[in-house]
Design brief:
The protein has one domain (12-148): Alpha-Beta Complex (Peptide Deformylase). It contains three helices and eight strands; from the N terminus they run αβββββββααβ. It has helices at 26-41, 123-136, 141-144, and strands spanning 46-48, 58-61, 69-80, 83-87, 97-101, 104-110, 116-122, 147-148. The strands form two sheets. The chain has a five-stranded antiparallel β-sheet. A three-stranded antiparallel β-sheet has the order 4-5-8. The longest helix is centred in the first third of the chain and has 16 residues, at 26-41. The two termini are 23 Å apart.
Length: 161
């Protein structure tokens, strides 16, 4: 495993749409491991492959209690309700905003063994899933934010993404 460099700011990979993973092989599995290690090292709750310069549809996340999820080709298939909450991003250090998201979502993906998954999520997990899947489309949270917090201001609510 290896800790990867997280791209920041205006790097073009952060604004590019990611390609689907066609074959799950050792390289993909190692990349998922590296992504998880990188996410934990930088104290994040989610990380998408474009954030380390690889435009493939891969995300890792851990909403807490060491519930690591590794998702291949995730896609939102249902969204319901709306709630706004604080978000930040490992690729935009020190920047936080209030972002409206669906209150509950259903995501379909493959696990590292290639088994189909259907994840029904609400609250913080739903927010993380939407944030990371946005990265796969080249969208950053600042594109959806209704306001950005002053750098001196403490973001309200739960730990930002």
């Amino acid at each position: 495993m290896a800790i990867r460099k997280i791209l920041t700011g205006s790097h073009p990979a952060l604004r590019s749409k990611s390609s689907a993973v066609k074959k799950i092989n050792q390289a993909v599995l190692k990349l998922l491991e590296d992504m998880a290690e990188t996410m934990y090292e930088y104290k994040g709750v989610g990380l998408a492959a474009p954030q380390i310069g690889i435009n493939r549809r891969l995300i890792v996340l851990d909403p807490g209690e060491e519930r690591l999820m590794k998702l291949i080709n995730p896609r939102l298939v249902e969204m319901e309700g709306t709630e706004a909450g604080p978000e930040g991003c490992l690729s935009l250090p020190g920047l936080y905003g209030e972002v409206p998201r669906a209150a509950s979502v259903v995501v379909e993906a493959l696990d590292p063994a290639g088994k189909p998954l259907r994840i029904e999520a609400e609250g913080f997990l739903a927010r993380i899933l939407q944030h990371e899947i946005d990265h796969l489309e080249g969208t950053l949270f600042i594109d959806r934010a209704v306001r950005l917090f002053d750098p001196e201001e403490e973001p309200p609510g739960e730990k930002p993404i």
